[in-house]
Amino acid sequence: MDLGALKRAMRAEHERVEAAVPLMCPDLTREQYISTLRRLYGVVGAWEVWSSMHAPASLRSLIASRNRCPLLQNDLAYFGETALRTAGPELALPDDPASFLGAMYVMEGSTLGGQYIARHVESVLHLTNREGSSYFRGYGDRTAEMWKEFRQVLASVDETETDVVISSARAMFAIFSEWMRSTI
Q: Are 37 and 72 in contact (CB under 8 A)?
């Protein structure tokens, strides 16, 4: 699979998601940030539940160590948010390997951008020791390694499945964007 083609095909969807969250605003407030973390908790939680139940057998080991809801729980607890709502979007996605990887592309891709977001949020909100921003730090020192591992799996998808991966990624981006625009 041509990963560059996938990235180019997802550019507009990626921009829509970025527009749905205020994280890179220079005047980001704690309230905006906490609200964003709450919405992220809903969509990430929905993904983690769905992916644990629907991952094709060949991909189960890939997702086993990629749960990030505990990081969101820690960040929200840092801000005094302990009564978390578990509501999340409905994920009615195909679960064949190519479709699964398309949806996973959206969720895993957020770990890379998160590094950049973390630095900005920490600066604007004066967070220290990565407290309150651990979700955006992704897998910490292993983020690049884990992204590389995922890219290798994605690159192994047969070229004939490219449209399936792109379609599934678009569907996941749409769900993510709509949820992030919601008020909870």
A: yes
d(CA 132, CA 22): 16
Q: Say which residues have a Cβ less than 8 Å from residue 175's Cβ, sequence separation at least 6.
A: 43, 89, 91
At residue 21, the pLDDT reads 86
Residues 33 and 121: beta-carbon distance below 8 Å:
yes
Query: How is residue 13 written in tokens?
Result: 């969807």
**pTM (two decimals):** 0.91
Tokens coding 180? 């992030």
Q: What tens digit of pLDDT does each residue of 46-75 get? A: 999 999 999 999 999 989 889 999 999 999
Q: How many CB atoms lie within 10 A of CB 91?
A: 18
Question: Per-residue b/e over 144-177, b at no fewer than 16 CB within 10 Å?
Answer: eebbeebbebbeebeeebbebbbebbbbbbebbb
